Amino acid sequence: MRYWNDNRKSCEHVEPREDWKESIEKWIDWMDAIGRTNDTLRTRWYQIVRFSKAVDKSITDVTEDDLIFYLAGMGTEGRRGVRSCVKVFYQWSMKRGLARRNPADEVPTVPMTLPSGCICPEENIEQGLASPDENARLAVMLGAFCGLRRIEMTRINLKTDLEENAEGMVLHVHGKGNKERLVYFDARTKIHLQNYVEARRDDNPALFVSLRAPYTRLQIGGVETRLRELGRKLHIPKVHPHKFRRTMATTAIDKGMPIEQVQQLLGHQKIDTTMHYAMVKQQNVKLAHRKYIG
Fold it and tell me: Mind giving me the DSSP string for 39-54?
């Protein structure tokens, strides 16, 4: 498979069970041909490869129990992602006579639950904004004030994605599934970003670059590393871009932004996902009840 042979690491843990290999590579090629992004291809590859190694059976012999027990040790998001991956892989396989049944059909859907600790306290955000690490500060701003995903942060092109119009500075965000949306900056983020761009002394159009020459573009792992280091220094547990993204969603809804607008701002296809992100404060629920119900 051209895409993955050019990009994947040659290490044992990313190799599928031998009799799954050809089918998996054809499936990935098929998803590539219908326009799935490289990030989706990479994720699906790892998910199905690890599943093939764990069940250690031929494609036709896998049962729903195999999938259930495989999912049992994962968190909610992991279970949702792997179940979806297996379901789609077997749908493709059955149409091509590679499997007789889909083991995911009898596995219940994984309900969306919001684990505790997903919101970053305001004082931690302010601490992050005071960090001497420029990349960490930018990641905090783009997550907490703009609601960007980590991959969206690393895709920003300073030469083509920033636009000044009558309403201020606008960012063209390249989201999941190659879908583009517009995000408007708050005053603080706008000023900080403008100063950062003016101070840059390299020609790399990427927003996130290494701190030393040759100033190469930072990938997702590089941004996460910066945030983890920031968390250790500030004693903030499990600093992650999604914490800031959830914080923005919760803050916006608490301040009265309609959830449909928050959905658009975050780039969610389904409003259920937006509701899952936002942790509405109980005090605000009580006040709203008194206002509208009496």
Answer: HHHHHHHHHHHHHHHH
CB 29 within 8 A of CB 66: no
Indicate if the pLDDT at residue 91 is higher than 80.
Answer: yes
- In tens, the pLDDT along 205-237 reads 888 877 676 777 777 777 777 777 767 766 666
User: Which conformational region is residue 58 in: left (phi greater than 0), alpha (psi within -120 to 50 degrees), or beta?
Assistant: beta
Looking at residue 53, its amino acid is K
Q: Three-class SS of residue 40? A: helix
From 111, 156, 153, select the one nearest 136 (Cα to Cα): 153
Is residue 189 predicted with pLDDT exceeding 60?
yes
Give the C-alpha separation, 173 to 183, whole Å.
Answer: 7
Peptide bond preceding 237: is omega within 30 degrees of 0, i.e. cis? no
Return the SS3 of 154. helix
1 with 42: CB under 8 angstroms?
no
The residues, any chain, with a CB within 8 Å of residue 143's CB and separated by 6 or more, are: 153, 241, 242, 243, 244, 245, 247, 248
Note the helical H segments in 56-166.
Answer: 64-71, 76-95, 122-129, 134-144, 150-155
pLDDT in tens, 133-148: 777 788 888 888 888 8
- H or E element in which residue 163 lies: strand 162-165
- pLDDT tens-digit profile of 257-289? 888 898 888 888 888 778 777 665 555 555 555
**Under DSSP, is residue 114 helix (H, G, I), strand (E, B) or coil?**
coil
Contact 157, 206 (CB under 8 A): yes
Quote the distance between the C-alpha of residue 181 and its chain's center: 15
Neighbouring C-beta atoms of residue 241, cutoff 10 Å? 22
Q: Quick one: pLDDT at residue 238?
A: 60
